[in-house]
Structure formats: structure tokens, C-alpha cells
Write a structure and sequence with these properties.
Elements: E1 8-14, H1 18-29, E2 34-38, H2 45-49, H3 51-68, H4 84-95, H5 102-110, E3 114-117, E4 120-124, E5 127-130, E6 133-143, E7 148-149, H6 165-170, E8 177-181, H7 185-196, E9 200-205, H8 216-228, E10 232-235, E11 239-244, E12 249-253, E13 258-261, E14 263-266, E15 270-271, E16 298-300, E17 303-305, H9 316-331, E18 344-347, E19 352-357, H10 360-366, E20 370-376, H11 381-386, E21 391-397, E22 402-410, H12 413-425, H13 430-434, H14 446-452
Parallel strand pairs: 1-2, 1-6, 2-3, 6-17, 8-9, 8-14, 9-10
Antiparallel strand pairs: 4-5, 5-6, 7-15, 11-12, 12-13, 16-17, 18-19, 19-22, 20-21, 21-22
The structure holds flavin-adenine dinucleotide and nicotinamide-adenine-dinucleotide.
Residues 152, 154, 181-187, 189, 204-207, 212, 238-239, 267-270, 314-315, 345-348 line the site of nicotinamide-adenine-dinucleotide (NAD).
Length: 455
């Protein structure tokens, strides 16, 4: 093992997703000798193949949908003609710098960190190998290697030119038709974008409903919204076999029916590989699918993990939140431990599905006395005016008199969520929530109504 000062650092960060980049930059700014290692682009999936370009696509698709709503509300705008090249160019020019991370690398090294592009692997406590070069970390190692698209073991699939989030986000031309394997967050968001740009889309979801991790009422409302966009949703049936004949995909479903399309997008979840980054050398089971962490994001003595690999929620805000916890822990600064009871998440479909904390099913499984209140957005004044689809649902722990979960589905559902995220995180007594004033006529005023329906 090299012991010279060029190969010895206080902290080595392997994988520079949003959280890893934040840890490396912040610790360097605080005067620590930090080495950041990434085999891909500094910043990870979120800025290059995830949140940011996908939300740019969604912004464009929503503009098309909004233009089409003029008829019936305000007159006519003539024919709305989608042009994907505008979106593809914006993703290249504004979001990803054509998948070049020079700005991010300069930002990191500008803060005083050293950056090495390569594949890092823990070789034991305090030891990291990067493509054959050994490094020592005297204070600790932080792992933020994230996830890649999980390719389900469907016969034939691996031999076909399927798309993952990378290919669809890099696409300069859209196919005429698309099969989307998986109706989770990625599948729902991107299906709607594609459909609004004129692609014939079929979503295949093995579970009995799309967005299966959220409230069933939200799944049902989203199902309706996707169908209204012309999307075919096949749920409760998995794919048995995939084939590609050089120009088109054929998917045979478990019920024997077949689908065909020009392209196939795999959006069937994400996969982390803790052993690949050597976490097995510091106590993580060889076959573990996550890096188990404590409430300081410690995996073991001198090893921390942040982001998707921890299994606490595959979201950029979780990665950044955990990074803050790790920065404090490494520096010995005071601060609260990590807690996830008020984990917020937003699926940026139209309508948006915001959610925080537990769903009703989770609450009923974990708590003794659960109350639920639900208000369809169409029953609120603003929702009726806007002809908005969606709902507000609140889930309460009746014994403690606080909310433990909520769903806000509708236009700007992710923004309406803010109020309820505060309520769940702050454990604000329900009687305080019911005694406050809600502005009229807002969508968030539906919260008051849902609280009034708690039963
Ligand atoms: C299409 C899509 C849309 C999404 N939209 C949202 C959204 O709207 N909101 C949201 O909160 N989240 C969203 N996400 C999730 C979000 O992108 C991730 O949760 C986020 O990127 C955090 O991931 P991470 O910090 O674990 O690391 P990642 O972003 O996965 O980055 C990990 C980094 O580690 C590097 N790496 C891996 N192994 C090694 C190794 N051995 N050595 C060196 N480097 C290595 C990789 O090159 C990569 O740069 C979306 C994801 C996708 C795919
Ligand atoms: N707006 C956001 O915050 C956002 C957006 C996109 C992604 N993400 C993050 O990325 C993660 C991954 O997204 P995702 O949509 O790939 O995963 P997901 O786990 O949310 O959904 C995957 C879906 O694919 C289905 N599936 C699995 N195998 C299948 C098969 N063989 N045939 C048919 N269906 C199958 C699953 O039942 C599941 O419903 C999300 O969990 C989320 O944390 C977040």
C-alpha cells in the first residue's frame, strides 16, 4: 500500500453522486485532505440522466398539455406541434453540457479536493484501490456509488437493444411506439412525456397497480390521467419474454398476449452493488442489496454511506440530507441524527403525486389507531375552477393526535406537499392544524377539508 502523501488523504469519497459531491466539497472547504473518485460524471445520475433532464422533458410535455387545454377554457391556439429537437437541445446545452462534467470537476477541485476519475473499491479499513492504485484514508471512507437500472430476468431481454434512463434521456429522435417495462416513478413520468410528444406508449406493470408504493387512490387517478393521454396501461401482468427482430420489439406477457413497439424502456427499479465497491471487506454481507447504515450513516468504524445504496429512499434529497449528516459526523460537529419518518417524495406526472411519511396501509400495519381523511380536489373551490384532477389524503396516528403521512395529488402537488411535510416532520397536533387559517381559494385549502374528514 502506498503511504506517500500523494496517496494519503483524510477522507476518500468513492462515487460522486449528489451526496458524495457535497461531502467531498464541504469537507475540503473545512480544510480536510479529500480525494473524490468517480468512474463516470461528477454529480451522478441526477444532473445527467435523472432528475434534471427528466424534469426538463416533463416541463416541455406539460407545456404541450397546457396549450391543448386552451380549447374549452379560453379559445384556441391552433394545432400544437411538438418538436423533440427543442427538448433534446435544451438537455444537451443547458442541463448536461453534452454530458461533460468539467464545471462540476472544477467546482470540486476549486474547493480544495483532489479528483481522480476511475473505479474505486474499498480494500479493507482505511484502504481504497482505484484502478490498481492504492490510497489510504486516515479518517474515513464515504461510499456514494448509487444505483443503475435493474434489468429484470425476463427471457431474451438482455439480448435486445433495450433502453434504460440513459438512452431515453440522450434520445435526439423519438420512436413511433414505446413499451415501458415498469410503472413506477420513472415509468409513469417518462411515459407521459413520450405520449404528449406523440409516441404510442404501452406501460407494463407487474404489480396490480402503477405507482404501487403510493396510495391506491393516487394510483387509480394517475391510471386515468395516463389513459387520457392515450397511454395503454397493462397492470397486474408481467413480461415473460422479449424479442427484437432488428427493427421492433415483441413482448410476450404472462397472460399470453403480445405487444410490439419500436423501442422498449426498462424502468423496473434500480440496483445497488455494495460488494462491487468492496463494502464486503468492512462487514457488509457479500449478497446485501444495500449498505446498511445507522442514524449517522455509518456502515462500520470509519466507513459511511449516502444515497441510493443505503436503501433509505432513492432520491436526490435523501442523498443530500445524508451527506449533511456525514459531514457533521466526520467533523465531530453536533447535529440531529438521520430520521426518515417524514420522507417526502414527488412523482412529477400531471397531476403530480406528492407524498410524505406513511401510506394508509403502512400506518395500519405499524400503528394501533389510524384515521384517514380524503378530499378529491374537484370538491375544493380552486380544484373545481381549474378542473383539476387529484386528491388530498391525510393519515393520522389517532392515539398521538398527529399526522404520520399524507398525499397531495394535483397541479403543483409537490408544492402543496410542503405544508403537510412540515406537519408530519414537526408532529404538529391535528387540533393546531384544524385551527389555522387556509387561504381561499387555494389547492392547499383542501388540507383543511381532508383533516375535517379524518375518521
Ligand atoms: C430518470 C430518473 C429520474 C429521477 N428523478 C428524480 C427526481 O425528480 N427527484 C429525486 O429526488 N430523485 C430522482 N431520481 C433519483 C436520483 O437520480 C438519485 O436518487 C440521485 O442521483 C442520488 O443518487 P446517489 O447519490 O446514490 O448517487 P448517483 O447519482 O447514483 O451517483 C453515483 C455515482 O457513483 C459513481 N460510481 C459508481 N460506482 C463507482 C465506483 N466503484 N467507483 C467510482 N465511482 C463510482 C457513478 O459513476 C455515479 O457518478 C431520478 C432517477 C432517475 C433514473
Ligand atoms: N420524481 C422522483 O423523485 C423520481 C423520479 C424517477 C425515479 N425516482 C427514483 O428512482 C427509483 C427507481 O424508479 P423506477 O420507476 O425504476 O423504480 P420503482 O421501483 O419505483 O418502480 C419499478 C416498477 O417496475 C415494476 N416491475 C419490476 N419488474 C417488472 C417486470 N419484469 N415487468 C413489469 N413490471 C416490473 C415494479 O413492480 C415497480 O412498480 C424510484 O424508486 C425513485 O426513488 C424518483
Amino acid at each position: 500500500m502506498a503511504t506517500d502523501s500523494n496517496h494519503t488523504f483524510d477522507v476518500i469519497v468513492i462515487g460522486l453522486g449528489p451526496g458524495g459531491e457535497h461531502v467531498a466539497g464541504s469537507l475540503a472547504e473545512r480544510g480536510l485532505r479529500v480525494l473524490g473518485v468517480d468512474r463516470g460524471l461528477v454529480g451522478g445520475e441526477c444532473p445527467y440522466w435523472g432528475c434534471i433532464p427528466s424534469k426538463m422533458m416533463i416541463r416541455a410535455a406539460d407545456a404541450l398539455a397546457e396549450a391543448r387545454r386552451v380549447e374549452g377554457l379560453a379559445g384556441s391556439v391552433g394545432e400544437v406541434s411538438p418538436d423533440w429537437s427543442v427538448v433534446a437541445k435544451r438537455i444537451r446545452d443547458e442541463a448536461t453540457d453534452n454530458w461533460d462534467d468539467r464545471v462540476a470537476v472544477d467546482r470540486l477541485t476549486g474547493k480544495g479536493a483532489t479528483f481522480v476519475r476511475g473505479t474505486g473499491r474499498i480494500a479493507g479499513p482505511g484502504r481504497v484501490d482505484v484502478d490498481g492504485t492504492a490510497y489510504t484514508a486516515t479518517k474515513g471512507i464515504v461510499v456514494n456509488t448509487g444505483t443503475t437500472a435493474a434489468v429484470p430476468p425476463v427471457e431474451g431481454l438482455r439480448d435486445t437493444p433495450y433502453w434504460t434512463n440513459h438512452e431515453i434521456i440522450e434520445a435526439t429522435e423519438l420512436p413511433a411506439s414505446l413499451i415501458v417495462l415498469g410503472g413506477g416513478a420513472i415509468g409513469c413520468e417518462l411515459s407521459q412525456v413520450m405520449a404528449r410528444f406523440g409516441v404510442e406508449v404501452t406501460v407494463v406493470e407487474a404489480a396490480d397497480r402503477i405507482l404501487a408504493l403510493e396510495e391506491p387512490e393516487a394510483s387509480a387517478a394517475l391510471h386515468k390521467a395516463l389513459e387520457a393521454d392515450g397511454i395503454t396501461v397493462r397492470q397486474g401482468v408481467g413480461a415473460d419474454k422479449v424479442a427484437h427482430d432488428g427493427s421492433a420489439f415483441t413482448v410476450t406477457l404472462a397472460d399470453g398476449s403480445t405487444l410490439s413497439a419500436e423501442r422498449l424502456l426498462v424502468a423496473a427499479g434500480r440496483r445497488a452493488d455494495p460488494a462491487a465497491v468492496g463494502l464486503d471487506t468492512v462487514g457488509v454481507a457479500q449478497d446485501s442489496r444495500t449498505a446498511p447504515v445507522d442514524d449517522r450513516c455509518r456502515v462500520s468504524d470509519g466507513v459511511w454511506a449516502v444515497g441510493d445504496i443505503t436503501g433509505k429512499g432513492a432520491f436526490t434529497h435523501v442523498s443530500m440530507y445524508q451527506a449533511g449528516v456525514v459531514i457533521r459526523d466526520v467533523l465531530g460537529d453536533d447535529g440531529p441524527p438521520a430520521e426518515y419518518a417524514a420522507l417526502p417524495r414527488v412523482t412529477f406526472t400531471d397531476p403530480e403525486v406528492g407524498a410524505v411519511g406513511m401510506t394508509e396501509a403502512q400506518a395500519r400495519e405499524r400503528l394501533g389507531n389510524v384515521q384517514v381523511g380524503l378530499t378529491p380536489l374537484g370538491e375544493t373551490t380552486r380544484g373545481w375552477i381549474a378542473r383539476a384532477d387529484g386528491l388530498i389524503k391525510v393519515v393520522a396516528d389517532a392515539d398521538r393526535g398527529v399526522l404520520v403521512g399524507a398525499t397531495t395529488m394535483g397541479p403543483a402537488g409537490g408544492e402543496v406537499l410542503g405544508a403537510l411535510a412540515v406537519a408530519v416532520h414537526g408532529e404538529v397536533p391535528i387540533e393546531r392544524l384544524t385551527s389555522m387559517i387556509y387561504a381561499y381559494p387555494t389547492l392547499h385549502r383542501g388540507i383543511e377539508d381532508a383533516l375535517g374528514r379524518l375518521a
